[in-house]
From TrEMBL:
Protein's organism: Callosobruchus maculatus (Southern cowpea weevil)
AMP-dependent synthetase/ligase domain mapped to chain residues: 17-128
Stated name of the protein: AMP-dependent synthetase/ligase domain-containing protein
Domain named Pyrrolo-quinoline quinone repeat: residues: 389-714
SUPFAM superfamilies: Acetyl-CoA synthetase-like, Quinoprotein alcohol dehydrogenase-like
Cited InterPro entries: AMP-bd_C_sf, AMP-dep_synth/lig_dom, ANL_N_sf, Beta-ala_Activ/Resist, Ppantetheine_attach_site, PQQ_b-propeller_rpt, PQQ_rpt_dom, Quinoprotein_ADH-like_sf
Pfam families, A to Z: AMP-binding, Beta-prop_ACSF4
Highest taxon of the lineage: Eukaryota
Biological process (GO), any one: amino acid activation for nonribosomal peptide biosynthetic process
SMART domains: PQQ (SM00564)
């Protein structure tokens, strides 16, 4: 390819070629000097780019007044080229349109049945009644009128024409949002002036970015350059668009067709690994600076700050730890998982004191696994209605009755909180000061609801009178859902300020107890035993006295706990799941560890009691079924689904049958038979799901990251 490019250069510059048509990736293989010579050549009259996105960087060069540059677009199925646009001064700083259609050719952007509304476009189709290439076994006699061919490209239309947005396969879903890899490339180019390429690695589940910088440079210079670029990228791109990996390369590899070879770039990423002799502290520090968007040289200034105080989040923390394992081929120190959520940067570095290489185990450590794969016998689920809350709905809805009517209450990241009737019609709507993610609770008054908000307040609202009855302010965000205690005369909940609160129904503080970490889970209350069980991000499970909040016992495990605890059917065991993937049981009376069961991946899902079993989901795409024994547990089965599971399941009991409703992050909601452990029905929602499903009267209610709350019928 290099020799061919040099031959073309000599042909253009020495042979005085007047017309040149090229794929942009091939043209950009020339260096700056060669590109300048070509564009300023007096012999070259016409330069045409096609086959890829028009290279806007070309417009930064000086060019001959006699040179005309065109953007050309089309597909082979409609005799190759279909549109042509001449570059003018007016298009110098704007998007480049596809241009006017050639003779007997039409262009349309079809939004119907297209999933790219978030990008304000649809798929581009090219049509013609004469310029038709027959595909496979098509019968030419049946091809009458204008025949449209799909391009596989997403475009949008305005008064200036049709504009290319991205290839359909360059639009991916990441963290619940659709992102355009081409847009990320453009933002990085506008920021740095450097050609770059984004690649989504399905194998590694990572977003890769390769930046082209010509010439040789030493590793230290390269490191500083990448550090500066990362800081800029992190500050300008939304969280779901920040690359997991960035690398500087001299040239983009090309395929035999002259287009960027993304497989070679993915292989390059796989080959860049740190050796066993790597400095773990240095790797961790670089990753910390990468994910919070701080220059590595400035980290000492932030050594007394926590990860979340410098721009981190739960997702970024887990990404950091996952990448640490990947690049070092070693597990991280056990105490680091808790430290990154609760402690300062300097405290996290202490976790590496006397730390030695811990090779990751490649074999499965679960014994006697009875595994079921997806087996959908019938598709009886359907969407009855949906309601748009204008932003992601990750919270679990509350479904309740009031005066024989069914209502659904839920909040969203848009700050909107609504109460809907059974048909999805709006009964109450209020915009709160911040996001709402915790599950609400209906009060004994029936027409009032308790709901926590990210502004740090617990609210009591009357959805009939449409008024706020009272609010109680804590010291930080509230994600924990309130639970009734003290014979249903009070509520208990936790806050990110590490405090468990008990309030009367009138909003008066009864007691508050400071624990050892932030509380994101819902408390579990045993009214008969007058005990409250609550978990913290620091990895502890507390048992509190219901009357005054006194700590009866505390058990601290190794890793953070985001899920809520549950009690065994005989009320003798309290079951918890830590984020690292361990389910453990504690004796209700003493808090002593009874048994533990380790999975192979993270757990955010809360355990749910299923007769004498407990079920929970995992990031490893499985739903587990554990039988609870007096002094241990037994893995009954695990069912493989199509993607990660972070939400909590719910139980359906119909006649003598018991079913489990599971929502995967992919947006698929499935019903599993608790006896056969097979999926018997499922439905696919349009976007990712982190909300937990709720079943009530033959219907399932669940939030989705397409901004809607859904009502599903199970027929």
């Amino acid at each position: 390819m290099v020799k061919l490019i040099l031959k073309i250069f000599h042909s253009v510059f020495i042979g005085e070629i007047t017309f040149l048509q090229m794929v942009p990736s091939v043209f950009l293989r020339w260096n700056d000097k060669q590109i300048s010579l070509i564009l300023e050549s007096e012999s070259l009259k016409t330069l045409v780019f096609g086959g890829e996105v028009f290279p806007k960087i070309i417009l930064q060069y000086q060019r001959s007044k006699n040179l005309s540059i065109f953007n050309i677009y089309g597909i082979t199925e409609v005799s190759c080229w279909a549109t042509l646009h001449k570059i003018t001064d007016e298009t110098f700083e704007s998007m480049i349109p596809l241009g006017a259609c050639l003779d007997d050719t039409v262009l349309k952007v079809d939004k119907e049945n297209d999933e790219n509304e978030i990008l304000e476009g649809g798929e581009i189709f090219i049509g013609s009644s004469t310029r038709i290439c027959h595909i496979d076994d098509e019968n030419p006699k049946k091809l009458t009128g204008t025949i449209y061919r799909a391009t596989g490209d997403i475009g949008k239309v305005n008064e200036k024409g049709v504009f290319f947005i991205a290839r359909k396969n360059k639009i991916i879903k990441r963290f619940g949002q659709k992102i355009n890899l081409g847009t990320i490339e453009n933002i990085i180019f506008d920021m740095t002036g450097l050609i770059n390429k984004c690649v989504w690695s399905q194998e590694h589940n990572k977003l890769l970015n390769f930046i082209v910088v010509e010439g040789k440079f030493d590793p230290e210079y390269k490191k500083k350059m990448l550090d500066k670029i990362r800081v800029k990228v992190t500050s300008l791109l939304p969280e779901n668009s920040i690359p997991d990996f960035m690398e500087v390369i001299e040239k983009l590899p090309l395929t035999s067709h002259g287009k960027v070879d993304e497989k070679s770039l993915e292989k390059l990423y796989s080959s860049i690994q740190l050796t066993e002799n790597c400095n773990f502290v240095e790797v961790f520090s670089e990753l910390w600076s990468k994910y919070v968007g701080i220059s590595a040289g400035d980290l000492d200034r932030y050594k007394e700050y926590k990860f979340f105080e410098t721009g981190g989040s739960s997702i970024k923390a887990l990404q950091l730890l996952s990448e640490f394992k990947e690049v070092t081929n070693s597990d991280y120190p056990d105490q680091l998982l808790t430290a990154i959520f609760e402690k300062r940067y300097m405290d996290c570095l202490e976790c590496f004191h006397n730390f030695t290489l811990k090779r990751q185990s490649s074999h499965e450590n679960l014994q006697h696994i009875y595994e079921k794969r997806i087996k959908v016998d019938e598709d009886t689920m359907s969407i009855m209605w949906k309601y748009d809350l204008k932003a992601c709905v990750d919270g679990t809805p509350l479904v309740f009755e009031n005066e024989n009517e069914v209502y659904i209450a839920v909040g969203a990241f848009s700050h909107i909180f609504v109460v809907l009737d059974e048909q999805g019609s709006e009964i109450y709507k209020e915009t709160f000061p911040d996001a709402i993610e915790g599950q609400p609770l209906q009060s004994n008054q029936r027409n009032t609801i308790f709901v926590g908000c990210f502004d740090g307040a617990m609210y009591c609202i009357n959805f009939i009178c449409k008024e706020t009855v009272w609010k109680y302010k804590t010291g930080d965000r509230i994600k924990s859902g309130p639970t009734y205690c003290r014979s249903k005369t009070a509520i208990v909940f936790g806050s990110y300020d590490k405090v468990a609160y008990c309030l009367s129904e009138n909003g008066y503080e009864i007691w508050k107890t400071t624990l050892d970490g932030s509380i994101t889970s819902n408390p579990t209350v045993d009214i008969k035993l007058e005990k409250i069980f609550i978990t913290t991000v620091s990895g502890s499970c507390f048992c509190l006295k219901e009357c005054d909040g006194t700590v009866r016992w505390r058990y601290t495990y190794q890793h953070p706990i985001f899920s809520s605890p549950c009690l065994s059917s005989d009320k003798t065991q309290v079951l918890c799941c830590d984020v690292k993937g361990t389910v453990f049981s504690l004796v209700v009376e003493t808090g002593h560890l009874l048994w533990s069961f380790k999975t192979n991946n993270f757990i955010f899902s809360s355990p749910v009691l299923l007769e004498d079993c407990v079920t929970f989901g995992s990031i490893d795409k499985h739903i587990y079924f554990l039988k609870i024994l007096p002094d241990g547990c037994e893995l009954v089965a695990k069912t493989e689904l199509d993607s990660r599971i972070t939400s909590t399941s719910c139980i359906i009991q119909q006649n003598d049958k018991v079913f489990v409703v599971v929502a995967c992050n992919s947006g698929k909601v499935s019903i599993i038979d608790s006896e056969s452990h097979y999926v018997i029905s499922s439905v696919q929602l349009p976007n990712e799901v982190f909300s937990s499903p709720v079943f009530y009267r033959d219907k399932i209610y669940i939030g989705c990251r397409d901004n809607n709350i859904y009502c599903l019928s199970i027929g």
